[in-house]
């Protein structure tokens, strides 16, 4: 059986320092709902990837637990010897400190599931075991994973992989997957990577800062949503920062967004929401960009759009005398 790989991505540049809220985090309006969502507090996001540099200043204290399923080191050693996992983790939930960067949900916690080795490849078995681990994981205070983030993919539809994904979703955990970077800049031709192409997952395409679909972003009839994925600034190996491009980078914007949406919606409903309800709440917070559904799905994540509509509505209903 073929191996599963990191979806190829582009390293644009590596930097020693960064002090800002990254443009992608701002573009999806995350800071506008931080107060309302308590920055995603109480939610755990599972990052299924190459591990994580949890000693990075911006990730210190963000990682609640983890496990290594690869043959790189022991089961308890989930350090990132690639860099990709650390980048994805930072976009989802880097701490918004005095210095460094902020992720989408700075108060969320990260469960690090290392299923890809230093070269960014892994056996399907590692990935399947990693998904099942995240699904079953329980924290010291009975925390459970509220979103699974996977910026990886392969060409093969393996039944056991589908079963693991389906099991997570049946347990109420949204599974967010990168669409893949084999796009040909034509929305009328399909490119698929698994698990992204499964109907049940939230498949994420990439846009640039001009809200244009990235030419490399896979297009197909299962795309659910798009998020920033070009020149994304985030945490990187050895305490550094990097700007990377790929649907891999778009994915954690959505898993982080889910932590914020979960906090807001479950407060409003005063109960735990199902996976389908959480997906519906996320989709309510998107704006169409005018591309075919095969390219943008429901559109770009815009977390504050409901509040902005409400303000507009109030203005519209004001009685002028």
Summarize the structure.
This protein has helices spanning 23-27, 34-37, 84-93, 124-136, 159-170, 247-269, 275-284, 293-296, 305-316; strands at 4-6, 10-15, 19-20, 44-49, 63-68, 100-101, 109-114, 121-122, 145-150, 152-153, 175-178, 202-207, 223-228, 232-235, 241-245, 286-287, 300-301. It is of the alpha/beta class. It has a seven-stranded parallel sheet with strand order 5-7-4-9-11-12-13, sandwiched between helices. It has a three-stranded antiparallel sheet with strand order 8-1-10. Strands 2-15-14 form a three-stranded antiparallel sheet.
CATH-defined topology: Rossmann fold
Number of separate structural domains: 1
CATH C-level label: Alpha Beta
Poorly predicted segments: none
Strands, count: 17
CATH architectural label: 3-Layer(aba) Sandwich
What Rg is obtained from the alpha carbons, in whole angstroms?
A: 18 Å
Beta-strand proportion: 15-25%
First-to-last CA distance: 73 Å
CATH H-tier superfamily: Peptidase S8/S53 domain
| Biggest sheet strand line-up | 5-7-4-9-11-12-13
The tally of helices reads 9
Q: What string gives the helices and strands in order?
A: EEEHHEEHEEEHEEHEEEEEHHEHEH
Helix content: 25-40%
Question: Sheet with the most strands?
Answer: 7 strands, parallel
Quaternary state of the chains: single chain
